[in-house]
Amino acid sequence: MNWCDKLASTPAVGFGLDPYVTSSGTLIDAFAPKLSSLVDGEKLRFTIDQSQPCSLTFTTEDGFQTAIDPAKISVSFVHRLTAKQVSGGPPRLEMLSFPRPYSELLPTVLKMLIEATTSLPSPKTRGLHRIGIVAVTGVSEEEAPPGIIRFLDYMRDPWDKVFGTYSFSIAAEVGSTSAWRDRCVHILAKGDGKDALLNLSFDWQRTFAKPRPINPKTLEEIASEAEIAALAYFEELAEGNRFDANLDRQAQ
Amino acid sequence: MPISTARLSDIDSAILRDVENATSELKAKPRGQGATSLDSNSFLELGARASVYATTARIAGRINAANIPEEEYQELLAERQELLTKKFDETLTRKESNRLDYVRWSLDRIEDARHGQTLDLLEDAIRQYENLGRDIDRLLNQLREHTGRR
């Protein structure tokens, strides 16, 4: 169990594809079997969030959101809340989505992404050039992993006095071979106010030197390797050796 | 920017917006399969959107951390002991010191998951007793003032 599990992080995963322009109507047709299975009697257990000329976004009632545009497809998990009326009392909040560990949700959204990608129109004529795995976490600063606190201290170090509000984003290469390059976009932000949370978003991406074919076997291989690499990098961030000024000095 | 036209790296901010939207819309919907209800004590604390997210994330995190296998918990305890032994022997490297911080944090999260809710209730009870104590002090001061005036 990694730190993303303990802080109930939520995952988003996506593929970057060769562009292929098709109408949103065609996309809905492509996903008709999946969407039809989410109709319960007369009730739709999903919402179409956006349907623009060439793109489509829909979310299932249990919190899985699929977004498709000409060059990308992504599946993310978002907690869904609803207010339920209570007899003789104030409404009560309920979660429609089921809280599960990040390391359980991640394979689920990857599987859904692979299924959705192979459902796209003309998948065999397109190549895949990127996979992304995102971990989104909201946590109070005092409950954040020590490596993240070290990261913040590392960034705040040049100033004597720093206020509580901050927002920064760093995109960095975190590994490479002749076949792929890994990078991660790190976004850390905290708003104003006593109750403001530290919002963490780590967007790990692997870009391939040559486009990979779109078929279930290849996609499963890519997803499996990316999952291992992304989780290892997220763990590394939480330990925080990268942001240890003493280690930096030793290295020099 | 709609999520469908966002870069992959923008998914995160879209998700954050969606969480906020989900909490702000609060449309009455029938309970879905596997829905988890927040208890009424939690509801009283939900003053702002951030608090809603914090509360749900904490509950979800506690559910997750409480389900950690006993074997993994024991491994963390053993690793902490090993690193502490090195620390007292003064052979702990800087990297190992960072690892010790992380292992301690992981154990804290598990302890919080196992006992946090009870401690939260205890903290609430203490806070109420403290408030009562302050009210009684205030009343006594007022009584003394009135007695002194006579």
- Could you state the order of secondary-structure elements of chain B as H and E? HEHHHH
Shape of chain B: elongated
Strand content of chain A: 35-45%
The largest sheet of chain B, given as strand count, sense and whether it forms a barrel, is: none
Question: Which oligomerization state do the chains in this entry correspond to?
Answer: heterodimer
Alpha carbon gyration radius of chain A: 20 Å
On the 0 to 100 scale, the average pLDDT of chain A is 90
SSE pattern of chain A: HEHHEEEEEEEEHEHEEEHH
Distance between the termini of chain A: 34 Å
Structural shape of chain A: globular
Let me know the average pLDDT of chain B: 69
E-strand count of chain A: 13
Q: For the largest interface in this structure, which chains are involved and how many residues does each contribute?
A: A-B, 80 and 64 residues
Going across the major beta sheet of chain A, what is the strand order?
4-5-6-7-1-10-13-12-11
Outline the low-pLDDT stretches of chain B.
1-52
What's the Cα radius of gyration of chain B?
24 Å
Give an overview in words:
The complex is a heterodimer of chains A (252) and B (150). Chain A has 252 residues and is an alpha+beta fold. Chain A has one domain (3-251). Chain A has helices at 3-6, 24-30, 32-36, 102-119, 146-156, 216-239, 245-251; strands spanning 10-17, 39-40, 43-44, 46-52, 55-60, 64-69, 72-77, 81-86, 89-95, 127-139, 166-176, 180-190, 198-213. In chain A, strand 2 (39-40) and strand 3 form a beta hairpin. Chain B is mostly helical and 150 residues long. In chain B, 75% of the residues lie in helices and 1% in strands. Chain B is built from five helices and one strand; from the N terminus they run H-E-H-H-H-H. Chain B has helices at residues 11-25, 40-44, 49-66, 70-88, 94-149, and one strand at 36-37. In chain B, helix 1 (11-25) crosses helix 3 (49-66), helix 3 (49-66) crosses helix 5 and helix 4 (70-88) crosses helix 5. The longest helix of chain B has 56 residues, at 94-149. The termini of chain B are far apart. Chains A and B meet through helix 1, strand 1, strand 4, strand 5 and strand 6 of A and helix 1, strand 1, helix 2, helix 3 and helix 5 of B.
